[in-house]
Design a protein that fits this description.
The protein is of the alpha+beta class. The protein is built from five helices and 24 strands. A five-stranded mixed β-sheet has the order 3-5-7-10-11.
């Protein structure tokens, strides 16, 4: 009597049987094993209610393949039905998103639900289908059934449970637990990235961040100014300056005062009544030094310069800047 293996439905060779077809049977088994290890079955669910994978003894079928590739545009939530025998499958589901998703199950047992563009490894125990990709389920919002294990894992990582939210110490986490799903709280995420008092900058878009990102109250800040860190700074010359918090300072242009001029001297020219003498040195009485030097008339130094302010701006890169006020 011809029998077959329970899992992959390969022919069992009885002793002395199939003397003239033994080689053909072995070749068939190798082909079917190849399907079980590397084979892909494509299931198109367009418009259908469900699809049952074909099952054949010692012949090609759909259920023996390693990967189930589900595609199409189903009209409603439906299923792919696998045989009730022990087997591990990889499943890639790229169906158009629909309410309820796609379920991989046996004919009478429970199954695993898939959303759009989700890949999971599943296991049929002969009665029902189970999800083996727990780490993948944490990435989606449609299949998180074991919150006890999730809580234990978060505790191991030092993440504390604060009500229905998980946070690190006292900071609220942007990841929330809602029923059997994890979801991203965008407002909490933005509050972590840009708390009140934060500076936001944008090179090309001057739109108020409250409008651009949809949260917070923002005011234009730092117009025409560069940002300087609070505290004591020391320059290359060893000069230190302390900058207080929430202050503004500096100037675009500066006019030097007499005290700020570099200390220097001037030569004098004396225009006498009959001759011009160049007087480089004067004594303490303001008279020219040297013997036999006479003079008459006035001595004066002519002013120079226009007191024009000079530019003290740093090289800059312009951006729109805003500060979050609430």
């Amino acid at each position: 009597m011809t029998t077959y293996t329970s899992g992959l439905r390969l022919i069992n060779q009885d002793t002395g049987a199939n003397a003239t077809t033994w080689g053909d049977n072995v070749d068939t088994c190798f082909e079917l094993l190849d399907d079980a290890i590397t084979g892909i079955v494509t299931v198109d669910l367009t418009g259908t209610a469900s699809h049952t994978l074909t099952v054949n003894n010692n012949a090609a079928d759909e259920a023996r393949n390693a990967l189930i590739y589900v595609k199409g545009t189903p009209a409603s939530a439906n299923s792919v039905i696998v045989p009730a025998v022990e087997k591990i499958y990889d499943v890639r589901c790229v169906n158009t998103s629909i309410a309820g998703g796609i379920t991989i199950r046996t004919n009478t047992g429970t199954g695993v639900n898939f959303g759009t563009s989700v890949t999971k490894r599943i296991y049929c125990d002969g009665t029902s289908v189970w999800n083996l990709s727990e780490t993948d389920s944490l990435k989606t919002t449609n299949n998180l059934s074991d919150l006890t294990n999730v809580s234990a894992a978060l505790s191991t990582l030092g993440i504390q449970n604060t009500g229905d939210l998980y946070g690190i110490v006292s900071v609220r986490s942007p990841i929330e637990v809602s029923g059997s799903a994890l979801q991203l709280n965008i407002l909490t995420l933005f509050n972590i990235i840009w708390p009140v008092g934060s500076i936001y900058s944008n090179r090309t878009d001057g739109t108020n961040p409250g409008t651009l990102m949809g949260y917070g109250t923002w005011a234009s800040a730092g117009t025409g100014r560069v940002l300087v860190g609070v505290g004591t700074g020391i320059d290359a010359n060893g000069v230190s300056v302390f900058v207080s918090a929430q202050t503004c300072g500096g100037e675009y242009q500066h006019t030097l005062t007499t005290a700020e001029l570099t200390r220097h001297t001037h030569g004098l020219e004396y225009q006498g009544a009959s001759a011009l003498f160049c007087l480089d040195n004067l004594n303490t009485n303001g008279r020219p030094t040297g013997s036999g030097v006479g003079y008459s008339g006035d001595v004066s130094v002519q002013p120079t310069g226009n007191s024009t302010p000079f530019n003290v701006r740093d090289p800059y890169y312009s951006v729109y800047m805003w500060i979050r006020t609430a």
